[in-house]
């Protein structure tokens, strides 16, 4: 049986954040045993840290939620790759909570999103890949799901390298 499109997208979003996907780890699974020291480490020169990836993923989920709520496309309020504030284990826990809240808020917005609007175009004008506009809402939502999966894989590799 095929699920309704919004239910299917919500399920896929939850899998990308919490787990249950066939492809590998979700964000939560990749982050499960990462310490603050590992999160801010740079075991691969030139690569982003795990903490930067967490802020980046949270920012894009916040931005997609904002768009579902009717806002025009823009870069995430916290920035695409925000500079990290000084941190500690306490802040690391808060950063992970920010990621979880961004996912929950996006899920809530998606639950309220009218299925008939999934085929509408996000923003005006031509497709803008870096901004994620000029595509349908369904494509944008699927894009943030893919974005989570992509960065979960990076986090897993960085965590292994940091250990």
Description of the structure:
The chain has 163 residues and is mostly helical. It has a single domain, classed as Up-down Bundle (Four Helix Bundle (Hemerythrin (Met), subunit A)). It contains 6 helices and no strands. Helix 1 runs antiparallel to helix 5 and helix 4 packs parallel to helix 5. The relative contact order is 0.22.
Specify the CATH homologous superfamily: dinb family like domain
Which CATH first-tier class would you pick? Mainly Alpha
* Radius of gyration (Å): 16 Å
Q: Ends: how far apart? A: 43 Å
Overall strand count: 0
Q: What's the architecture, going by CATH?
A: Up-down Bundle
Order of helices and strands: HHHHHH
Describe the sheet with the most strands.
none
How many domains, in number, for the residues? 1
Oligomeric state of this protein: single chain
CATH fold-level topology:
Four Helix Bundle (Hemerythrin (Met), subunit A)
Helical segment tally? 6
Percent of residues in helices comes to 55-70%
Choose one word for the global shape.
Answer: globular
Strand content: under 5%
Poorly predicted ranges (pLDDT <50, ≥5 residues)?
none
**Category from helices, strands and their pairing:** mainly alpha
| Mean pLDDT rating | 92
């Amino acid at each position: 049986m095929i699920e309704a499109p919004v239910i299917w997208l919500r399920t896929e979003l939850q899998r990308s954040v919490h787990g249950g996907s066939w492809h590998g780890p979700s964000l939560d699974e990749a982050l499960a045993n990462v310490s603050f020291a590992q999160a801010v480490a740079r075991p691969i020169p030139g690569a982003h840290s795990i903490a930067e990836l967490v802020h980046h993923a949270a920012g894009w989920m916040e931005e997609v939620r904002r768009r579902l709520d009717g806002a025009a496309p823009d870069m995430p309020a916290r920035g695409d790759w925000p500079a990290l504030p000084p941190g500690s284990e306490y802040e690391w826990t808060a950063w992970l909570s920010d990621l979880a809240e961004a996912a929950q808020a996006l899920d809530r917005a998606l639950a309220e999103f009218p299925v008939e609007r999934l085929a509408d175009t996000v923003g005006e004008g031509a497709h803008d890949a870096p901004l994620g506009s000029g595509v349908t809402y369904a494509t944008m939502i699927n894009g943030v799901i893919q974005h989570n999966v992509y960065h979960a894989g990076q986090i897993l590799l960085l965590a292994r390298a940091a250990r």
